[in-house]
Each structure stands twice: as structure tokens, then as C-alpha cells.
Design goal:
The structure is a homodimer of 156-residue chains.
Chain A: H1 6-20, H2 28-35, H3 39-51, E1 55-58, E2 64-67, H4 76-84, H5 91-94, H6 108-123, H7 127-131, H8 134-140
Antiparallel strand pairs in A: 1-2
Chain A binds a DNA duplex (30 and 30 nucleotides) through residues 5-7, 27-29, 38, 40-41, 43-44, 46-47, 50-51, 57-65.
Chain lengths: 156, 156
DNA sequence: CTATATAGTACTAAAATAGTCCTATATAGA
DNA sequence: TCTATATAGGACTATTTTAGTACTATATAG
């Protein structure tokens, strides 16, 4: 299905909320109220994001989380990496020792190329794009050059 | 982790093997021997691929599987879709009714854009590319336009 | 008619993921 | 200095997904 985990999905929701007021502290409980995502889940996501330096944390009373950089300086690839670890579509790209049939496997190099394209696509989208209304984004995000020749089958 | 299932990985291995001799019938047992992938797994993959019309099947003695199109006319996006269903990175792009927080979710349109970029990247790679030696591919596969500005962090 | 090979489906075991809970630590303000 | 509040970190559990197996039906070459 080539999908991102739910936790990452929540991370984008949380970050989008924070990016709307990039200069304010946001406590986990506030974010829960605003987004409807369960508190323990929000909390987990926030911890992961601050560990990856996408957010900075402030403990204690009146503490909370703050964007570490400007919205346009944080991209989706970083967010996914923060939540799920290094991005690689197949397992052998992230864990080289795990594949038992290396000798008969000519695919590795090819998948690497695909990974790069996917990574670049994800890197092109920033938090600032996620905050924008949907319509305006189309121009601000780069598309693979072959794009115009194909329609999306998945859309129905 | 943004990854593709093992079954899809096997599918590319199997298809790469078949694409080397695109005009011959390949029985499941032959493919097992050549690739080292377990027979039941190969069998499962082959069935899914023929159901999706990527392969044509021939039953009975001396039967086997054959590529339905030329290697360059089958792309990776089709293979992934055959094995795992419609490609969509987040769940709400494939299952619109499942999201309970639609009202507070502004992300959907944005993820759709990302999905398109990813899909296009996958669509640009064909079986013919997978058969080529790794070096030659670089020129034959289109890359997103912003690609050159960024390096891959996942590579280490 | 028989050996061989795919078609289809149901099932089981293992792994990954989501989500919860508890304890420790830091800070603001009284 | 004490207390309320908020994050840090880690361990744990339930659920879901995925991988892999097994069995029966059907088609075809010779």
C-alpha cells in the first residue's frame, strides 16, 4: 500500500496546527483540544519531533513546544524521518545485512534510484506548504518532469 | 518508514527475472530455483500479477507465465498496485470515509499532492529499467526538478 | 487418461504498529 | 522553598497487518 504510519499522519496534523502560530508555545493538552487527536498520541508525537529537533521543548509550568525553525525550513521528509526513521522504500536500502539473497538480487541499485525520487518529492514539501490553502500549493511544489503524461489511476 | 511490503519486493525480483527472457514461458518452480524465493511466495506473487494483467498465465503441462506487455510498458507503480492495491501514502487518500476528524483536518489536499509526486516517480521506472545494469539507469529515469539541490540523508 | 501447472480461497503464525501508563525531572509563580 | 504544571523517557499491551502455508478445483499437453 506504500503508506506512511498513522503516527506520521498525526505528526503532520500536529505540526500544521503549530505552524499556524509559529511564535507561540503549544502545550500537548492544547493541541489535543484543537486537533482531536488523543493526548497520549499527541504527546508521543511531540516527543519524537523534539528529539529530532523539529520542535524545541520547554518544561515546567507554562511550558510547551515551539517550532525550531521557520515553517518553510522544515520539510515532510524530515518529519517522516523523525517519526519512522530513515526513509527507504524497500528493506534492503536501510538494512544492508538483512537480505539473504544478495547475490541473486540485482534490484537493489534500482530501488535506490526510486527511493531518491520519492525522497526528493517529499523534501519539496515544507510545513509552510501544509499551512497554505490547498489551491495555492500547486504552484509552489515541484513535480517530477514526466508528470504531465500520466493520470492517476488511484483517483476514482 | 515509508516502505513497500516484502511481497512487492519479491514481485520485482520475479519480474526482473522474467523480463530477462520476455518471450519465454516461466513456470513457478523455475522462478523459485532461479531467484531463491520460496515457491508458495512466488506462486502468490505470480497469481496477483496475472490477475492485474501484468502477466498472462498458461495452465496445464508446459504451462507457465508470460509478460503481458513489453518490459518498457510495465512500470513500478503498476506492480505495486497489483500487489498492494491502490497507491496512497496516507489512509485518508484511499479510504475517504475512515477519517473521524475530517472537519479539523486540512492536510488531506496536501497529502494528495505528495501522493501524486510519489506516484509519478514510481511510474517513471519500468521493468526495462530494472533489467538494465545499475549505471545505465540514471539517464533513463526522470527526476523531480528540485532533485539536484538536495542530498539524501538516508544514505550512510 | 494422466501428469503437470495454474486458480482460488481459507487459514495460521509472526511481526509491526498504535496506543496506554507510570515514574522522573524541570520550571514558574506564590 | 513549596506546589502545580508540563515535558522526558521507557516499558508494556492489544490490535492490526503481513507473510507464508495448505488444500481443492480446473485446465492442458501428450
Amino acid at each position: 500500500m506504500l503508506r506512511v504510519s498513522k503516527l506520521t499522519d498525526y505528526a503532520t496534523v500536529v505540526l500544521t496546527h503549530i505552524a499556524h502560530q509559529p511564535n507561540e508555545l503549544h502545550a500537548a493538552s492544547d493541541i489535543t483540544q484543537a486537533t482531536g487527536v488523543a493526548l497520549p498520541t499527541v504527546s508521543k508525537v511531540l516527543k519524537l519531533l523534539s528529539k529530532a529537533n523539529i520542535l524545541t521543548s520547554h518544561r515546567g509550568s507554562k511550558g510547551g513546544y515551539l517550532l525550531a525553525s521557520k515553517p518553510k525550513d522544515t520539510n515532510v521528509a524530515e518529519v517522516i524521518t523523525a517519526i519512522e526513521g530513515p526513509i527507504g522504500i524497500t528493506e534492503c536500502t536501510t538494512d544492508h545485512s538483512a537480505c539473504e539473497q544478495e547475490s541473486s538480487c540485482e534490484i537493489k541499485g534500482n530501488w535506490n534510484l526510486i527511493n531518491r525520487a520519492v525522497y526528493a518529492a517529499l523534501e519539496a514539501v515544507t510545513l509552510a506548504d501544509l499551512v497554505l490553502p490547498v489551491v495555492e500549493q500547486a504552484v509552489s511544489i515541484s513535480m517530477p518532469v514526466k508528470m504531465e503524461t500520466n493520470d492517476l489511476k488511484a483517483e476514482s
